[in-house]
Amino acid sequence: MSADSYTPPPSTAPPPTGIPWLGLLAVLMGTFISTLNGRNSTFGLADIRGAVHAGFDDGAWITTASTVAQMLVAPAAVWMGAVYGPRRVLIHAVMCFGVISLITPFSPNLSTLLALQFASGLTSGFFVPLTLSFVLLNTPPKYWAYGIAVYALNLELSLNISASLEGWYVDHESWRWIFWQNVPLATIMALCLHYGVPHRPKNPNAPRGDIFGLVSGGLGLALIYAGLDQGNRLDWLNSGLIWGLFGAGAVLLMGFFVHESRTESPLINLKVAFANPLPWLLVLISLLRLTILSTAYLIPLFLGSVRGFRALEVGDTLIWIAVPQLIFCPLAGLMLRRSDPRLVASIGFIFISLACLMVGYGLTPIWGSDQFLPSQLLQAVGQSFALSGVLFFAVLHLRPQDALTFGASVQVARLLGGQIGQAFVVTFARVRGQVASNLIGLHIHIGDGQVIQRLQSYAAVTARAGDPASGAARGASVLSSLVRTMATTQAVIDTFVAVSVLTTVALILSVAHKPAPLGPASARPLFERRDPSTP
Question: Is pTM beyond 0.85 here?
Answer without folding.
Answer: no
